[in-house]
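Annotators were shown the component list below and the corresponding predicted structure, then asked to write short factual statements about the assembly.
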Amino acid sequence: MYELKFDPELCASCETIDCLMKCQYISFDLQTAREERDRLNRGEDSFVLHDCVTCYACEEYCQFGNHPFYQIVDLQEEKGIWPTPKPIVHSQIKMYSPKGTFEPKEVEGTAFNMCLFPDFRDSIKGKLFEDTTQLFGRDLFCNLVYLHYAKASVIRERVPQIIKNFASCGIQELVCFHDECYATYKSWAPAYGIEVPFKPVHLFQFLIDRLKENRSAIKKLGFKVAYQRPCSTRLVPETEPMLDELFELIGVDRVPRKYDRETPLCCGAIMRASGREELADEINKKNIEDMLDAGASLCVFNCQGCYAAMGEMVAQAGLRPILVHDLCKLAIGEKV
Amino acid sequence: MDRVYNALKEIVGERFVSNQQEELYLYSRDPGTMDPVWPDYVVMPASTEEVQKIVMLANQEKIPLVPQGGGLVLSGLTIPLKGGILVDMKRMNRIIEVNKNSRYVIVEAGCSHGLLQSYLNQNYPDLRHSLPDSPPISTVGGNVCIHGSGHLSQVYGFHSDMVNGMEVVLPTGEICKIGSCSTSPYWFARAPLPDLAGLFLGWFGTTGIMTKISLKLYPHKRMKDVMLFLTENPEYISDIIYKVTDTEVAEDITISCAPKPDWMDGFQLTSIAIVGRNKAELDFKFRTIRSALASYIDSREGGFMYMPPAMKHNFTEVPLRSTARFADVKKGGGFEYVGAIMPVDKFPDAYRAGHEIAQRCETTYSLSARIIGRAHCMMFSCAYAFNRADKADVDRAKQALHETNKAVLELGGIPWKAEFPAQQLILERMDPNTLRLMEQVRKLMDPNGIMNPGNWEVK
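Structure shown to annotators:
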């Protein structure tokens, strides 16, 4: 079984303990953070393992790329801690299990990984998506969601085969529609020493490239948008400048706000699944108020899960919910 | 020429009577496992007076009469076991009166639930009635005849409990009013008079033909939502139901334990429907129910499934399309279920028995339950889908139904809308004095034994 590349000595040498000190959901003073960090480093139980909302943020906060969040998840599982009720976890593991009968698909043009979002397939059309072949299904599902459920073992078991399935399609590059897929192949798999024989391409980069190819068709949108940054981008923070470039290309202003960049708030879906409804309500309220206060008229989503969780809420608050690829389609005059 | 046919033609007109094989064929069977039996005639009356004349003719000719609503009972209760005249009530589908402030509607018995739902939505959007999960063509009369239940049953009981009064053509041809309408122009209640409705409700049309029904209506709160609570231990269910019903804020509670899709196998999904006039009311109900089940969430033994708002429609629509979808899962149009009316604390036993029987009989199945009257009882359903063109498949379902009926009775439950063989199992167990009383009532009301003979009779 694949082991996490986590260096406890490197962790112990850290003075700032940003992974815990910057946490938006658990408050620490430096002494408490140090003590809990040391506990975790010794593989002992800590309230962190019980109170963690699994927002993935500590993975971004660690200055050393030492994977504190993946370590937390492994420890949760090892100690039998259930962030989410057992029946929910068990049913989800069954629901998304691979069928195990994957037939390699002939890819023409760019391989476009739709993950498990068949409902969005019709939106991946038009100029920006010409010459792409969509790949999707349970045998290609990244499974990273099980980080929320303290079930990294399921990811470790399934991802190597998923990677083989993609590779069997003869692809060199894989554009990931879902941010979490990109994070799986760019961050999680390398952290566990799993080789990825193709190059994952983030949706932002793909859209930038295609927009540049269609530069003459771009009409600057002039919207003020609030960006709902999803948990998975915490695993691949290097994608943040890509989004800025993308927004600049289409003439969209990402309004500065309290809950963006290094301090975004979760969409709440996983908190609701964990039974933390009050917390989810509270952060949704704070988040949407912040979007409105910042003067946004649209809420841009990168994650389809966040879109499903918050789309209706932001619409009721008067913000237009839109996925980033649809925003790009608008910029070249296509209907969404 | 056929004397009875001509007499029926005289009563309803030529278009609404038939003794043609291709039409009789349709009325000889239902989607369940009961063998077909052909009626001799099918007739579609349009008024109480026409029903009365048909009943008088049947008495004169000593020929059986079988009233039928939507023909969706599934358990063969409108298959004419002894032939005779099948009285299809679908033409009597008028909505006669809505008394808004007293919240009742008077309909003809053949009025379909879909028609009434649509009428109320258009004309009285603040009112509604309790809908079963059968297809919308099922009728109000047929449903109360069998003690049906539906989306408001958790709060208000069986659909037969929601009947204020009725007009009935007795087996001897008299038109009789039951409830306040027997004494007053208003159809508002069965009390304070001696309750004669019990002579007709649950009798499967063996004591007369209902022609008009006054049905209770209820406030229609437009905002609705559903909470889905998932467990993997059937022992928890009766306590969960107790806790949820104790809040008095849940409108409908159903439990689904289907082996398909795969990810549902081994789980119990409790759907809790809530409604509100505004978001604040909905939020309050959400919080109240969540708090009632907090101990399960804290112990991680149960949890609410997260469902994006856009997907909730599949659980909040009334009636639920998924019910009818399962009915044809095998293709070939065969579907029947044992709907056991039983105490809620029998859930784990019923769950185990249902799984065990279905697996032993190798039949496609689905288990579910609907809570009735704040957990006073539940309708536990063991549903079997089969291909009617495949005799072996039909036989497997038949065997599973028979074994389920027996298991239900052994658990202290009673099969609902029991098909003929299940009726026999019930009557065998029934207190002999109760059985004698039923026979005496029936003999007194129907001296010629013409009303749906074979049903509720000792073989």
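Statements collected:
1. Residues 253 and 291 of chain A are 13 Å apart (CA to CA).
2. Chain A has a mean pLDDT of 96.
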